[in-house]
Specification:
Strands 1, 2, 3, 4, 5, 6, 7, 8, 9 and 10 form a ten-stranded mixed beta sheet that branches. The termini are far apart. By secondary structure, the protein is of the alpha+beta class. The longest helix is centred in the C-terminal third of the chain and has 26 residues.
Length: about 240
């Protein structure tokens, strides 16, 4: 039976070290891959394990906008999960709460098999990241798909900015087809709709640039404001208690 895990939290970061060979593209004049740093930071906030340190013989993680699809190999077959997440956006002038609302759902083995099959059939194992695809354009808006894989002692991160904006590039069509496969198998729009109806915040975002707000009555507006203030006071009390000997 599927299980849903609801999480509303303030998260503290931690550091882990990977034992696998990290394969990411580093742009000229940069010290690190931007998207590798991005996923490492976000994993801590939405409570995901770094794929690079997973003990599973095979892992596949697909980052979409506000959704993360995971499948991994266990002794008895493939397992998987889907995470929907948002960060609370507070009204102008208020202190940040740094709260995230997360729903993590286990995926049926049959669904995991279909996703893995699509991954293999699209030959994504050998598809390079966008940096090594001639003619792949970047941009500041649009969407970004991030694909992480781990097998044996190697870890790969590949990123693809807005495949639909890449014209007739064959590689872009492959990436978009895989994303479409995953969306269809998981019925992602319907799951996202269910998740959105469960969000307890007045306003929220996935990337900070696009904010969604719910229309509330005056009474509901002030109730949510009081709730945010209670949360901030609770965090301050916890911090004070931790500082005491």
């Amino acid at each position: 039976m599927k299980r849903l895990l609801f999480v509303l939290c303030l998260l503290v970061s931690s550091t882990v070290s990977a034992q696998k060979i990290i394969n990411v593209e580093i742009e000229k004049d940069r010290k690190e891959n931007f998207w590798r740093s991005y996923v490492l930071d976000l994993e801590k906030k939405i409570q995901l394990r770094d794929v690079a340190v997973s003990p599973a013989p095979f892992c596949l993680r697909l980052w979409l906008s506000g959704q993360v699809v995971d499948i991994w190999q266990e002794k008895d077959g493939l397992r998987g999960s889907l995470v929907n997440w948002v960060k609370e956006v507070v009204p102008y002038g208020e202190d940040e709460t740094n709260r995230y609302f997360i729903i993590k759902e286990e995926l049926d083995a049959s669904i995991c098999e279909k996703i893995h099959q699509a991954y293999v059939e699209r030959q994504l194992e050998t598809l390079p990241s966008e940096e090594r695809i001639a003619g792949w354009k970047g941009g500041f808006d649009g969407v970004i798909y991030i694909l992480e894989t781990s097998r044996a002692n190697k870890y790969y991160l590949k990123s693809y900015w807005t495949p639909k904006a890449q014209g007739s590039l064959e590689e872009a069509a492959v990436v978009q087809s895989f994303v479409n496969d995953v969306a269809q198998v998981l019925a992602l729009p319907a799951r996202r709709h269910y998740f959105s109806n469960s969000i307890p915040f007045a306003s929220w975002s996935n990337d900070g640039s696009f904010v969604t707000s719910r229309i509330n009555t005056s009474a509901e507006y002030f109730r949510l404001k009081q709730e945010r203030n209670r949360f901030r006071r609770s965090v301050k009390r916890q911090m004070l208690n931790q500082q005491q000997p």
